[in-house]
Automatic annotation (TrEMBL):
Keyword terms of this UniProt record: Lyase
Name of the protein this chain belongs to: Alanine racemase
Pfam families found in the cross-reference section: Ala_racemase_N, D-ser_dehydrat
InterPro entries from the UniProt entry: Ala_racemase_N, D-amino_acid_metab_enzyme, D-ser_dehydrat-like_dom, D-ser_dehydrat-like_sf, PLP-binding_barrel
Length: 391
């Protein structure tokens, strides 16, 4: 056993950015910690609880950079995440996706294990399904009503009469209403930071108005939950809000950089790839990372600067400038200068290593089983952290 452990430690010690099998997912831990400290500091000044979303990282190891004690509070987007983080010691969890009746049993199992779980609904039908389940007297999760603050996705507008009907149905069914939750999804349409303070205020105002309407109707609404990575960084006033959620802030990505929330140097996630060929007549350099390694996400396609399938950096993470992954098939990436660029194609011989910054950290991370962690820059890999998958 001792020999096996020593061999494993030696194998990790031998892993480097310039020798690891590619494609490989890299995580710069110094940037992760810096990004966490930046947002936590802002929210501390604004006087609200931080309930980070762990759907981007999907990793206990990353979550413990947020909460060394491992208890939370956290937000998840799947019940598999809730179960995984609960098994890792997290006890305060919000499942922030609309609840379907078939998932009620799994939520109750978590509550029975001692997890302080909140679920999300926006209809009387969902409230009635929870009330029906509660008839047996066993523990139930708490409930947040989803509020639509910008027409982006689900939820009820704060002045919708259905808001009170949902709350009434929960009370009739003996299910605890914890409060309201909203997400300013339209903030992702901002560019260069323009409009983000206004989006944050609209998000705050909608959630607070909904909570006040419920209280006026005789319902408790102690939780007023808001958040997206863009609005969390640009909110100026969070009066009436009790907690803020954000997720991709830990890693950031090219979408967030285009929106104006972060700089390129804040992006903690990258994919290492190897040059496998050249097509000089087309201005192409071929790499061994296609959409299976980078994802198909083209979130910057409508931005002023289209980053293709990712921005190309040298092995140290410094961007080449206008070199992007212009196209991708399953296991091939095509590097090319951005349209209109006057830059020269860099000299990248066969076998050269590059690092690709992702459009969408959540989507790129989902293509990989593990993070290869760099702690102090350079090329040494200090740890490998697993990621969970599933629903």
């Amino acid at each position: 056993m001792i020999d096996t452990v020593m061999q494993s430690e030696q194998a990790l010690a031998d892993q480097r950015v310039d020798t690891i099998e590619t494609p490989a997912l890299m995580l710069d831990l110094a940037k992760v910690d810096r990004n966490i400290a930046r947002l936590r500091g802002r929210l501390d000044v604004l006087g609200v609880t931080f309930r980070p979303h762990v759907k981007t990282a999907k990793s206990i190891d990353v979550a413990r950079r947020l909460f060394p004690s491992g208890e939370g509070p956290i937000t998840v987007s799947t019940l598999a995440e809730a179960e995984y983080f609960a098994a890792g010691g997290f006890t305060d969890i919000c499942y922030a996706v609309g609840l379907s009746p078939d998932k009620i049993g799994r939520t109750r199992d978590l509550v029975a294990r001692g997890i302080d779980l909140s679920v999300l609904i926006d209809s009387v039908d969902q409230a009635e399904a929870l009330g029906e389940a509660a008839r047996d007297g066993a523990p139930m999760p708490k409930v947040l009503i989803e509020i639509d603050c910008d027409g982006h996705r689900g939820g009820l507008p704060p002045d919708d009469p259905a808001l009170r009907l949902v709350a009434d149905s929960l009370r009739d069914g003996g299910v605890t209403l914890a409060g309201v939750l909203t997400h300013a999804g339209e903030s992702y349409g901002a560019r260069g930071g323009v409009g983000l303070p206004e989006a944050a205020e609209a998000e705050r105002a909608a959630a607070v108005a909904a909570a006040e309407a419920l209280r006026a109707a005789g319902h408790a609404a102690p939780v007023v939950s808001v958040g997206s990575t863009p609005t969390a960084h640009f909110a100026r006033n969070l009066d009436g809000v009790t907690e803020v959620r954000a997720g991709v802030f830990m890693f950031f990505d090219l979408v967030m950089q285009g929106i104006g929330v972060c700089a390129l140097d804040d992006i903690a996630l990258s994919v290492v790839a190897t040059v496998i060929g050249h097509r000089p007549e087309k201005g192409w350099i071929l790499i061994d990372a296609g959409w299976m390694a980078l994802s198909r996400d083209r979130g910057t396609q409508k931005h002023p600067v289209d980053q293709g399938y990712g921005l190309v950096c040298d092995i140290d993470g410094m961007p080449f400038g206008d070199l992007i992954v212009e196209d991708a098939s399953q296991e091939h990436g095509i590097l090319k200068l951005r349209a209109g660029s006057t830059a020269a194609l860099p000299d990248l011989p066969l076998g050269s290593r590059v690092r690709i910054l992702p459009n969408h950290a959540c989507a790129t991370g989902a293509q990989h089983e593990t993070y290869n962690v760099i702690e102090h820059g350079g090329h040494a890999i200090s740890a490998t952290w697993s990621r969970m998958r599933g629903w």
